[in-house]
Write a structure and sequence with these properties.
Strand content of chain A: 25-35%
Number of helices of chain A: 9
Radius of gyration of chain A: 18 Å
Helix content of chain B: over 70%
Structural class of chain A: alpha/beta
Largest sheet of chain B: none
Number of strands of chain A: 10
Structural class of chain B: mainly alpha
Shape of chain A: globular
Shape of chain B: flat
Number of strands of chain B: 0
Order of helices and strands of chain A: EEEHEEHEHHHEHEHEEHH
Distance between the termini of chain B: 34 Å
Oligomer: heterodimer
Number of helices of chain B: 9
Helix content of chain A: 25-40%
Radius of gyration of chain B: 21 Å
Chain lengths: 245, 248
């Protein structure tokens, strides 16, 4: 079989009878960076949540490293979630923990590491995203950019097979976007497999292996950045790009 | 004019051992009942949010039963009626304190359940999602992330409950528990010095509540997550229902 780290196969999902994903097939290979764009309500975030195993799918299946994880019971499924790192639009750092404790949390609670070992590893990852000096601060005391970098460290420290980013910079002040994108570009350079929902088109152009356009619960176009931007085949994509730029 | 207030009699009452012991008993009963009510209330709160319909039904019945009937009646029921219904309780180990403890904690749990449920719901759902994404089980997310954050939200209304409960302990005077009100009633009727005897009891209640208010402020600071420890969380507590206790 192929080298897909994360794969969704004809996934359907609806909320209260309202279809959000209408048969989405998607995969990302090792070391690839896929950027998903599309209007709000097109199903981008839902697709990401399904890939992160946070949402059960109505039909179709999600695979992680070739293992089908759809239909697996909650108890066995939970540990698999740590194999996929998820970064949220609103950071979602644990408010009752310091930056360091946030990053240690998964190691201690899920991987059952000793606290001392977890602390060392967590510090190493905080250093990597450039916020080691904020280790003992609480989320409330950090800027949005710092919070998001801590959130990235919290996901990375679990050594995930892929990282999923759900509009990681859209809740940030303009001056803080760069520091988060820099960290993400660094990850991409290091060969991390990534799926990024974002409208940072310059980042997409720069880093993406391919860009996908979603609309009304479907992927309507997928192409390498050059072609995607210069010659989008779909009328919907063209209109959307015109609006974003 | 206050022609008949004898300060000497008042101080004597204030420093007498029945008052001390009565106040201590009231405080012990309050703390024990509130602690038990928090535990029972926590599980009731989880039950109310459960996906299981029968579970939700049980919780509804419980809170209906204890909130729709007078606390005094519940107290009397447990002290006088329970031993006849259930002979295990018709023996010497079943003391007024235990009866009051059972009645007040069961009663208070119905109110704490509402407060705790509101507290759990007030925690940003993104916190739980982030925990799940890390691979944590629901129980661990609850223990490490949701409950600690709910505690901060739940402290102020729980302080209210403490005050209510402290005052409710005076109801136990009807089942011959020697708490503060009983002590002052006995002194009043024995000496015919009603103003002094009851004023001394007022002072005790006021004193206990004042100490509580200081402790509560400290507790709130402890559950405010900032390395400076002084700033307030931006979590609003206005969504928490507070109850009027007039009818209890």
């Amino acid at each position: 079989m192929n080298d897909a780290v994360v794969r969704a196969e004809v996934v359907q999902k609806s909320y209260d009878g309202l279809p959000v994903l209408r048969g989405v097939t998607f995969e990302v290979d090792r070391g690839e960076v896929k950027v998903i764009i599309g209007p709000s309500g097109s199903g981008k975030s839902t697709l990401l949540r399904c890939l992160a195993l946070l949402e059960p799918v109505d039909a179709g299946a999600v695979y992680l490293d070739g293992v089908k994880l759809t239909g697996v019971r909650e108890k066995e499924l939970a540990p698999h979630r740590s194999e996929v790192g998820m970064v949220f639009q609103r950071f979602n750092l644990f408010q009752n923990m310091t930056a360091l404790d946030n990053v240690m949390c998964g190691l201690v609670e899920v991987r059952r590491l000793k606290r001392r070992e977890a602390r060392e590893r967590a510090l190493e990852f905080l250093r990597r995203v450039g916020v080691a000096d904020k280790a003992n601060q609480y989320p409330d005391e950090l800027s949005g950019g710092q919070q998001q970098r801590v959130a990235i460290a919290r996901a990375l420290v679990m050594r995930p097979k892929a990282m999923l980013f759900d509009e990681p910079t859209s809740a940030l002040d303009v001056e803080l976007v760069r520091e988060v994108l820099d960290v993400m570009e660094g990850l991409a350079r290091d060969g991390m497999t990534m799926v990024v929902v974002s409208h940072e088109l310059r980042f997409a152009h720069h880093v993406a292996s391919s860009i996908l356009m979603m609309d009304e619960g479907k992927i309507i176009e997928e192409a390498p950045p050059e072609r995607f931007f210069s010659a989008p085949t779909h009328e919907r994509t063209r209109r959307f790009l015109a609006l974003v730029e | 004019m206050l022609a008949t207030f004898d300060t000497h009699v008042f101080w004597e009452a204030l420093s007498s051992s029945p008052y001390w012991k009565g106040a201590l008993l009231a405080l012990e009963l309050t703390i024990a009942s509130l602690a038990a009510a928090c535990v029972i209330g926590f599980f009731l709160a989880l039950g109310r949010g459960s996906r299981n319909r029968a579970m939700r039904g049980v919780v509804f019945l419980y809170s209906w039963l204890f909130r729709a009937t007078p606390t005094l009646l519940q107290l009397i029921f447990i002290w006088y009626a329970l031993p006849q219904l259930w002979p295990t309780f018709a023996s010497s180990w079943f003391k007024p304190f235990l009866a009051a403890f059972i009645a007040l904690s069961l009663n208070e749990a119905a109110y704490m359940a509402e407060i705790i449920r509101a507290g759990l719901l007030a925690v940003d759902p993104g916190q739980e999602v982030a925990g799940r994404a890390l691979g944590m089980s629901r129980a661990r997310i609850l223990r490490r992330i949701v409950v600690p954050q709910a505690v901060r939200i739940v402290i102020p209304p729980t302080g209210n409950e403490f005050i209510t409960l402290l005052k409710l302990t005076s109801l136990a005077s009807v089942i011959s528990l020697h708490e503060l009100l009983t002590a002052s009633q006995e002194r009043a009727t024995a000496s015919f010095r009603y103003p002094e005897a009851y004023s001394a009891a007022l002072v005790y209640y006021l004193g206990i509540v004042s100490i509580l208010m200081v402790l509560q402020a400290q507790l709130e600071r402890r559950f405010t997550w900032s390395s400076v420890g002084r700033r307030r969380l931006r979590v609003g507590t206005s969504g928490i229902p507070t109850f009027s206790h007039d009818a209890r």
